[in-house]
Amino acid sequence: MKVQKKSKVVILTIVGIILAVYILFPFYLVVMNSFKKQTAIVANPISAVGASFSQFVTNVTSVANNSNFNFWSAFATSAIITVVSLFLLAIFGAMAAWVISRNNKKKWATAIYMIFIASMIIPFQVVMLPLISTFRDVGKFIGISMLQSIPGAIFAYCGFGGAMTVFILTGFIKGVPYDLEEAAAIDGSSPEGTFFRIIFPLLTPVITTVTILNGMWIWNDYLLPSLMLGQNGKVKTLPVAVQAFVGSYVKQWDLILTAALLAILPMIIVFLFAQKQIMHGMVEGAVKG
Description:
mainly alpha
């Protein structure tokens, strides 16, 4: 039995190492080739030959000073869209989840909850073309441009990210004792006061998890901002701005990979510092649900 257990552990370890190498290999290519010149990348993109820190500094300087890429403007746009979208998703997602969970026996609440779940199944590619025409019409109606604008992108992310946010938070809130709300009502607290003073602070672990997951998705997303903001517009997020180094006949691989590394670096740092909160929130959500 001990021999079988050891052999099983060895096999699982080998499989885990293979999967880790398979998953991390593209990231290795991005990092390694960010330290190389264009000629060295074309000659051998896998090898570390030609990689140097001085070349990495040169690549970063070229990316940061490139007028077509406009790194700092794209970084600010990505930061504004991500932060505002996460704030709105956390607040309104928690409100919706609280109302649905406390009225789960009513048909209208069940119907709304089923609509949220059903929207998670629909692929984005199915709705992306109607999305553009709808946002164009909405912008004309309300007098605010919803295309090629930051408010339009934020509104779209709140819509597409709301379903998963409500789904996760609803399962967590169901485990929160209703006695707390009854006690607050007896003390004269309004429903709004009960939510923000009692319920919302209890949601901190799971909101942290949902915020980080949504944040990585919004920051790294390419398809939605490329449709909403356009590749030739003035407003660009970092993933869309990287497209500036990809031409029809010439591809600047040294600048493309360096820009890609700079784009994903903030989310890597956030994940490394917040991975404990992510796991804690997932465990809390599983126990509460």
